Task: structure prediction
Amino acid sequence: MNCERGEGHGQRGRPQGLGAPLWFPDPSLAREDGLVAVGGDLSVPRLLLAYRSGLFPWTERPFTWWSPHPRAIIELEALHVPRSLRQFLAREPFEITVNRAFPEVIAACATEGGRGRQRWITPAFIAAYTELHRAGHAHSLECWADGRLVGGIYGVAVGGLFAGESMFHRVSNASKVALVQLVGRLRERGFRLFDIQMVTPVTQQMGAVQLPRDEYLRRLRLALEVPARFADAAAESPES
Result:
């Protein structure tokens, strides 16, 4: 794991404070609820180091950094698509695009996410992940109907890791279709690990599994060695 340390290794169960230096504690020192560190910022270098280290940010004032145990993933070769959804997909109900509307997708996730308003997606998070998108590391996949954005998902790609952050829908099945399309794209482009952080009712229905933290970190190390690429251009559409 590409995890830099500050002075001292800290103690298990006691989240470490972060200042200006770019580092994170060992995730194995996480508190029982998964909290590893507090403080720092949402700069592009720090966010990339966090994902490489098996962490993700969740709240602000102060920023908090998490490595939950267990950790939820979707196995890319084992996505479960219910029969009714397969039938819906066969009708090709949406136009699918990639990176066409990242700012709109993350804003919609903040206000219309699957569990209602995603209060952790604050203006600071929106600004930080939009900057990460401009730097080529955060990506969105969109569903359109009659020219209207009706669903989507966004996340972060680092090596062969894709960390799904949030999704939303404005019409039935749009977020599920986005998830299916995303998994297909990750398979085609050689990604090895699809991190969804925690199980939700939708992802559980579609085959999410939970890994012990040590196993997740082992698979993360392997995934980071893979030079996968999510997109070849700033925006791609339509999606095949």
